[in-house]
Predict the structure.
Amino acid sequence: MRQPAASSQHPAASGRAANNKLQRPVAVHCNWPSVSLLAAGRWPPGADYLPAMETAAPDRVAAPPVPQPGDLDLLSINAVRILAMDAVQKADSGHPGTPMALAPIAYLLYTRYLKHDPADPDWPDRDRFVLSNGHACMLLYASLYLAGYALTLDDIKQFRQWGSKTPGHPEYRHTPGIEVTTGPLGQGIGNSVGMAIAEAHLAAVFNRPGHQLIDHHTYFICGDGDLMEGISNEAASFAGHFRLGKLIGFYDDNHITIDGSTDLTYSDDVGQRFAAYGWHVQHVADVNDLAVLGSAIEAAQSETARPSLIICRTHIGYGSPKQDSAKAHGEALGVEAIALTRKTLRWPWPEAFFVPPEAIANWRRAGDRGRIWHEEWQMRYAAYQSAHPEPAAEFDRRLRRVLPPGWDAGIPTFTAENGNVASRAASGIVLNAIAARTPELIGGSADLTPSNNTALAGVRNFSPEDFAGRYMHFGIREHGMGAMLNGMSVHGGLIPFGSTFLVFSDYMRPPIRLAALMRVPVIYVYTHDSIGLGEDGPTHQPIEQLTALRCIPNMTVIRPGDANEVAESWRVAIRHTDGPVALVFSRQKLAYIDRTRYGSAAGVARGAYVLADTPGGPPRVVLLASGSELSLIVEAQQRLALSGVRARVVSAPSLELFASQPPEYQATVLPPDVPRVAVEAAHPMSWYRWVGSTGVVIGLDRFGASAPFQRVYQDRGLTVEHVVEAATTAAGR
Ligand SMILES: Cc1ncc(C[n+]2csc(CCOP(=O)(O)OP(=O)(O)O)c2C)c(N)n1
Ligand SMILES: [Mg+2]
């Protein structure tokens, strides 16, 4: 095996960080005591020990090299391969082949190039590393264990078992050192772009001459699957346009997916594709050539004006009889193949999970480097604090996710003078009021800024020339936007939001689901929330989207019914730290509700509250609605009163917030035994729980139509008359 290029010193030690006086840690190449591999091994070297390969693939690589005494690199890389195949074998489940192929990349990153500290995986200025092809997570687990994170060999042995720290795909906040949840292919690329956005923005906002408070790279590995997925286009196109120069990706170019050879379906020239996006592209013909790979990483680090992609030819199942075959992708190799692989790799220890101490010690030196990097940053931070105490305190506040004092003081109360206001318009006013006092709020729209009312007055655009700008033009890339928002959120220091029409939430559903799974705070602004958008017609009129969002665990959906509820919804969303919040707003104007006569909009925080009660006695029927239908039930109440039917009006902007209230509160809003009628211009499914078996839901289980919205409402039965009729019948039961 060739030695890495002489310039294996971290490039941060030169160039852009050169003004730092501290001695930077350098990559130490292995002068570790010689490992008497061959002496210790039970197999002497010799070609006769090479197993016959299963099939003759045309581009099969030569047999893995024979380790030479003292070749700690190869020993350490093979340790990952051994752990990956043994863990999958023990679990009889998982993906051994890809970690075996990618082991050299992980090894070089974790031991030489990644600024990370196994003792403190959350250190703010660490480099980020995302494995977008999350099925290869044994690569991560083996590397994290070997590098000295809080992960033991027993954890590796528990791969994929109940309650283990090593689940089947990486899970956020579960295993130390995992940056983000991946699994659905392509998401990790989008997450990485989001992290690179966050880094670029925070660096531009906080760094001062001579003080690089924020200065890290974001690395990702992706495979054929990630690049076939459309989201990779959205994310890479964004990163290229915005020249996110500290983003570095590796493409696991192994020509194999589950169904077999990529020839079945894929012939993209990935290099040209990424070059066309504006990326800096390099090719590494053999990922096992550490010198070439290391040089490519260094060249990518030196390229600061463009994101980099390093296309690495790899061989799935490297060293095993199933090498270069789809059979190495997603199943245990089998006892026999594992034994043969040990021979091929010249790994002389037959017992499963054994890694020689020399290899572990070599990996653990990564921890020493990490500590130095980390301490060096702490000194930088301390110097920054004394030179620039105010921004230092601000930085600290943001990382702790503490809101600035008075962040909501500018939120207006809407009065009769404002008249009827579309909730999207009210949102625009409230969002501006919050953004003016909450600098960590960063986001924008997927090319619907004027419709989503998300323009921020006086706020500069995030642009290649101005990373300190915080209004984001995501382009028409909803899926990519969702994944970028997740990356921005998990990076820390930001509250990200993104917006589009509610109907297009479908285009970004996978990252919404992951935000919910990870419980990360992201705010979605979804306007044009129903058939009430009118003339654009049924392709743009959401029906099932509200229910579809509400049924995602950990998701909070809020659909306010007037301008003051909009203000409260934003308050809830900004404070919410435990998962994503979707704010759902109307295109059309909503009737003004006089809060001196009706219940306070502060009730939004509890999800549902009594807006208007029945003074003459207990209610005979409870009317519930969200959003634009609130005014229908307010009017219905008045008409019902004329015919002697006492109806309570309950505003229910968020069924999830209401579901999280104590049962006693729920019962005060919805008294048991009183029949209920719910009204929402959307699919009725999410309301049945709340109306019960005797209740009625007036909703939509068919698509809308293209016409002025009043006509569509009329035709689809969303009228005061219909509500009165249903409530009268329900009350009479
Ligand atoms: C969105 C999505 N679709 C499908 C899958 C299921 N899946 C997991 S791995 C894989 C094949 C990926 O091929 P590649 O990225 O080349 O992985 P390799 O076999 O080379 O490791 C598929 C289809 C998934 N995880 N995510
Ligand atoms: Mg592949």
In short: The longest strand covers residues 247-253. The first helix runs from residue 37 to 40. Residues 604-731 form a domain with the Rossmann fold fold (CATH 3.40.50.920). The chain has 25 helices and 20 strands.
